[in-house]
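Q: What does the assembled structure look like for these inputs?
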Amino acid sequence: MPDATTVTDVAASPVNADAGEGAIRLERLTKRYPGSARPAVDALDLAVPSGELVALVGPSGCGKTTTLKMINRLVEPTEGTVWLGGIDIRTLPVHELRRGIGYVIQQAGLFPHRTVRDNIATVPRLTGWRKERIRDRVGELAGLLDLDPDLLDRYPSALSGGQQQRVGVARALAADPPVLLMDEPYSAVDPIVRARLQDELLDLQRRLHKTIVLVTHDIDEAIKLADRIAILRVGGLLEQYGPPEELLRAPATPFVADFLGDDRGIKRLSLMRVAQAALTAGPVVGPDAAADEARRVMDANDTDWVAVVEDGRLRGWVGAAAVDGAATLAGLEPEPFAAAVGTDTTLKAALDAIVTSRTRVAVVVDDDQRYLGVLTLDDLAEGVTK
Amino acid sequence: MRAALLAEEPLVRWDWVRDHQDEIVTRFWQHVTLTVVAVGIGFVLAMAMALVSVRWRRAYPAFTGVSGVLYAIPSLALFGILIPFYGLGFRTAEVALVSYTLLILLRNIVAGIDGVPEAVREAADGMGYEGWRRLVSVDLPLALPTIVAGLRIATVTTVGLVTIAALVSAGGLGTFIDDGLGRDFPTPIVVGAVLSVLLAITFDLFFVGVEWLLTPWARAGRRQARGRAS
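A:
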């Protein structure tokens, strides 16, 4: 009999399909504001799998923030349903719902009259945790977000924008909610701090696997951070939803293509790693090779330089002019490559290495500096077009 | 002739002060009581109106309208209007004095709550604060400096107005001023006026201290601002 029950449950409740505590599903979610002809969000269907980071992206007025706020009911939908972990959120008391969802907003929105410690402790206090448990949790979060313990007893006004944003994330994570909503979290900090905060979020997400819905108008931020991107058009209409790589490779509509920008190929390179590309062996000789051999290798590869590799390790390169004046390479000191790239480097960074090096290739080495091959512009183009 | 008489009289006759020590103390405390009761009741009423206004915005113009009219009535006239209802004395004085505090306090409380940054309010809602709890733990603490500013103005104004309340036999330091004017005798006028001014300054300093104690975050913010400037 248990089997029969399970089958019935699945059939009766389609949301079981998106299992997992933090899975979010928007079903024909609609918001109309009185007095405006077009809905702000129009019958939006979107499934956010548990543990993934989904970015809602679009121009202003596309309803991305409205959509986000319907998930924690700061905005009440006109029609449609938000399912959270298979539960219709309207069936939960609104305060309980919100205490179970981390919320990070632009400029952090910290309470200026409370110390950093008390800011982080907000939701645990609201839900009535014991004092010792709160203190331990705040300490744990300070460590997780790399916050100096000295900052905990300061007021937010004493913190830099980046630190405030970190405290905002710590506060959102305080009660360990399965879901995090982030509304333009990094739009108020300078680009250098923004890049660092983004890296920290990626690092955090690798460890915590929260379900994160992030609203941004910055497509590069979405590409960098998101597992999936939803591109919305004005009126809350979903244009395309998929992994960044898929959007860049095959934009579904001209709007999406336009929104992604005219450097889609380059952006795709930023998502791909050197490990994914087919490498060229390259012009390689040993450290004691004869000049004739070096010249033969250069001719075969159509280059005017050879890479010198000794016991699998890259020593540098020797140019044609230097080879011409010598009998063997043994007496020549190879010049170091300006930039050797690792297998974990993005193809975009590899492209940069190619166009800025005299040899017009990126030399690829592994973690032990062992020579793996070279990456040419042709190899990159191959990777993007395949 | 009157001016001549006043001119011959010394500004303060210390023997009069010595002879009236007990009365001075009594009148002084009456003055304090009249002020504290007026500002206290005014604050409670204004707070109630402000909380209603914050929830139902349409009530706000009605409240400020009524308080504004009360504020505009000349004090002497208001005392006159109230005597038939409450007679001479404390009650008439208090009703009038409370009326004058309402507009200042109401406006400052509402302005203080309105001044809470939208991002802070939204963060509080998003974290799951219920309405009343957010008001107590977020809105009111952040509105405190503006509310205290209102209390300072209202209190200093009331200390001054209480001197007029002597005309309806409510007591206070105004009794000396009234007495001195009636007899062309400057000593009680000076005693009443000086003590009234000192009282106003004392109340003002008291509120500055209260604000300083209750807003450690604002001090930290100022230190920070100075640090950045230098």
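The first helix of chain A runs from residue 2 to 12.
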